[in-house]
Specification:
11 strands; mainly beta; single chain; Lipocalin
């Protein structure tokens, strides 16, 4: 009987080890949040945030995971950052109280609450987005997810692309609505190295 118990434990040990969640640290050089919003019904304006940090976990056996991202709002870039003779650039306007209010809210965060898998890969990440001091649910739909060794530095990495749509007024960003669209489309390009 004792040998049977030891044998059963020996068989389950490799499975327990294989099911351990793996932790990854965000690669800030290749992780960005992009946005798109309608401008006056004429064109879709795009921009991105240049500084993102955080961690994510992944357990492909147990089909669980988690994401914790911090975005520095001052790092936003619309492509218009040269003032010339104007009183301010578009980047400066987006950083003031009309939009991201960077002095009061220098960061926005996303913390996952659930991750849904199809096969070995995450396909949906539900969580809480905190922006302008307001926290509300947001779901990221994963369009692509890959885990492999980086071919240049040989380190294990995972990452991919995800999208979401939100109404900015839900977070208190009301300036210019409806001329400047309420609906904002987000793209997240995320890569991380295994810890």
């Amino acid at each position: 009987m004792r040998m049977a118990i030891i044998g059963a434990l020996a068989l389950t040990l490799p499975l327990a080890v294989a099911a351990a969640p793996e932790s990854y640290t965000i690669d800030p050089t290749h992780t960005f949040m992009y946005w798109e919003v309608d401008h006056l019904g004429v064109s879709m304006q795009r921009g991105r945030f240049d500084r993102t940090s955080g961690k994510f976990t992944l357990d492909r056996v147990a089909k669980t995971g988690g994401v914790d991202l911090t975005v520095e709002t001052a790092s936003l870039s619309s492509g218009d950052n040269v003032k010339g003779s104007r009183p301010r650039t578009l980047d400066e306007h987006l950083r003031n109280a009309d939009f991201f209010n960077v002095p009061e809210f220098p960061r926005m965060t996303f913390k996952s609450t659930a991750v849904r898998f199809t096969g070995d890969n995450p396909v949906e990440i539900s969580g809480q987005l905190t922006l302008l001091g307001v926290t509300k649910p947001l779901t990221l739909r994963v369009e692509r997810w890959v885990c492999k060794d980086n071919p240049m530095n040989k380190r294990p990495m995972c990452g991919g692309n995800a999208t979401a749509t939100l109404k900015r007024t839900d977070w208190g960003m009301k300036f210019g609505v409806p001329a400047i669209g309420d609906e904002v489309r987000l793209w997240v390009a995320m890569e991380g190295y295994k810890d």
